[in-house]
Design goal:
The structure holds two protein chains of two kinds. Chain A is of the alpha/beta class. In chain A, 40% of the residues lie in helices and 25% in strands. In chain A, helix 4 packs across helix 5. Chain B is an all-alpha fold. Chain B is globular. The relative contact order of chain B is 0.18.
Chain lengths: 253, 316
């Protein structure tokens, strides 16, 4: 893969603590345009907190976050949504009473300046078609299956025309056919030039789509590099992957 | 326009014909009906659309009443005084809303309730301006006859109801209404898609206060005398919530129906059970909420009609 896209996201020494608890300590990370970065680590490592901190949900306690050349450390959530940062939630967050269409329309309406409700609904149809939910457009979000709601999250995120997209466990709770479908979608997004940072526990998916992997453990970045190096890194094996995985991997060559 | 919007406008138009049918009592009742409907519609913006249960109706009702009363005592005509009261309440509520609406659920409810007490104490203590606990006399407006006075205030309150209803209808189909709807369903997700929730909630709070303030102004001019315990009565905060629940939370048509139904019940019970009216009214409200939890709008008029005209009325 050609790497030299210019830097879109830069974190320097970002920390976040919740009173006594250090959820993130001194995380420095850089993401370039067009990359698909996998963010892995054990439960409670601070992966979601890192995304929340970048998006302004839980602002950084210290450190600097730059996005597309500007300092966004203190930017509010709704503002970060308008400058091209979007995300899906691990625990899906639909507007339950709205139809799938209006869910996506809301995302288009409030993130794009000058969008009207009518034009937002038109745009929403396209995004629903992209994730394969056009048949469910008028169904209320509460009635969709989990897999559909995950794809709805994705359609919402796409309606915000992101430059950088965070995917927070889009595959959790899905069966293997659904995972395959979601993986195809991620490939397509990457091909469309969207930079992606994805939190994912399924190593198969991570290795399949990511160009780079960053590993968090106890709020610290313990490894960052090419997938083939990361899965052999002893620190990562210890903290997350486990000896069994490493042996199986070694056996496979 | 949806069917319920048309129904709402027809309902309001029907109310305007009231003076044709009755004397001073009908006019008084009609004026209160319009006032209650203004309360319910206003509360619905912040309570129904945005999902923030506000108890501050009485605060802005009293504030509007006093603002108008003070201005009229300084010789400013009624229309201008009410207009100023409306703008004053709008601005103040937007500012207070930006602060108070950071709280959610019960916390917001209690904070909004405290506004009533704060305003009441301010008015109580600004004796020079408001007369304090002695109350405030307000000059008569036209005063040619009791009946023409009653007719004038009925139409003034009706006009305010119409303006309120049109505003609420406009909000409900606008980007603002859509956004408030998003906030009610999932505020986190709403700000995640780029919605400035603080701004939207502040505007909603402002809109829910300004017409109530104007109604307070008209009320003050109508009754000629106000005192803090009358216009800052906490019941003015509770009633619109009950009306909205009875009529159907979130639906403008529903809350107006709820307001009229509530007034009907109040009058009926007051007249027949003067000693125990609060108790009887309370029981009726509980029964209504238990058996009709989604309000009047959840009744299917068509089905009831078929039931009544068909073989036998089926009560289910």
């Amino acid at each position: 893969m050609p790497e030299p896209g210019h830097e879109i996201l830069h974190l320097s020494n970002v920390s976040r603590h919740f009173s006594g608890l250090k959820a993130l300590s001194d995380v420095s990370l850089s993401v370039s345009k067009g990359e698909v970065v996998g963010l892995i680590g054990p439960n409670g490592a601070g992966k979601t907190t890192l995304v929340n901190t970048i998006c302004g949900v839980t602002p950084a306690s210290s450190g600097v976050i730059r996005f597309d050349g500007r300092d966004i450390t203190r930017v509010k959530t709704y503002q970060s949504a308008r400058i091209g940062l979007s995300r899906t939630f691990q625990i899906v967050q639909p507007f339950a009473e709205f139809s799938a269409l209006d869910n996506v329309a809301a995302a288009a309406l409030f993130s794009q300046p000058g969008e009207s409700l009518t034009s937002a609904r038109e745009a929403a149809r396209e995004h629903l078609a992209f994730v394969g939910l056009d048949a469910q457009a008028d169904q209320s979000a509460a009635t969709l299956t989990l897999a559909m709601r995950k794809r709805l999250e994705l359609a919402k995120a796409l309606a915000m025309k992101p430059k950088l997209l965070f995917l927070d466990e889009v595959n959790a709770g899905l069966n293997s056919a659904e995972v395959e479908r979601a993986t195809r979608l991620i490939h397509q997004l990457a091909a469309n030039g969207i930079t992606i940072v994805m939190i994912e526990h399924l190593m198969k998916v991570v290795l399949n789509v990511c160009t780079r992997i960053a590993v968090l453990h106890n709020g610290q970045l313990i490894a960052d590099g090419a997938p083939r190096d990361i899965i052999k890194d002893p620190a990562v094996v210890d903290a997350y992957l486990g000896q069994q995985y490493a042996q199986r991997n070694a056996a496979r060559g | 326009m949806t069917r319920s919007t048309v129904a709402l406008l027809i309902l309001i138009a029907c109310v305007a014909a009231l003076p044709l049918f009755g004397g001073a009592y009908a006019l008084r009742l009609g004026t209160i009906a319009c006032m209650y409907a203004v309360f319910a519609l206003s509360w619905n913006i912040v309570g129904g659309f945005a999902g923030y249960p506000s108890f501050s109706t009485a605060a802005f009702f009293g504030l509007g009443a006093y603002a108008t009363g003070i201005l009229m005592n300084k010789g400013i005509p009624l229309a201008a005084a009410v207009g100023v009261s409306l703008l004053f309440c709008l601005l103040l509520a937007v500012i207070l809303g930006a602060v108070l609406l950071r709280l959610r659920g019960h916390y917001f409810a209690i904070a909004s309730l405290s506004l009533v007490e704060v305003f009441r104490e301010l008015v109580n203590n600004a004796t020079d301006l408001t007369g304090g606990g002695m109350g405030l006399n307000i000059p008569l407006v036209s005063g040619s006859s009791v009946l023409s006075d009653a007719t004038f205030f009925f139409y003034a309150m009706w006009g305010l109801l119409l303006v309120t209803a049109l505003t609420v209808i406009a909000v409900s189909v606008s980007k603002l209404g859509f956004g408030l709807n998003c906030i009610r369903q999932n505020e986190t997700a709403a700000s995640m898609v780029g919605l400035n929730a603080t701004l939207y909630k502040a505007i909603a709070f402002g809109l829910s206060a300004c017409f109530v303030g104007a109604a307070g102004g008209l009320y003050a001019a109508w009754v000629h005398y106000i005192d803090p315990s009358d216009v800052f009565d906490i019941l003015y905060s509770v009633k619109p919530i009950v009306m909205a629940l009875m009529g159907g939370l979130g639906s403008p048509l529903g809350v107006v129906c709820g307001a009229f139904l509530y007034l009907g019940l109040e009058e009926l019970v007051w007249r027949n059970y003067i000693q125990i009216h609060s108790g009887v009214l309370g029981v009726l409200i509980i029964l209504l909420l238990l058996f009709l939890p989604h309000g009047l709008v959840s009744l299917h008029v068509g089905r009831i009609w078929r039931g009544l005209t068909g073989r036998k009325a089926k009560h289910a």
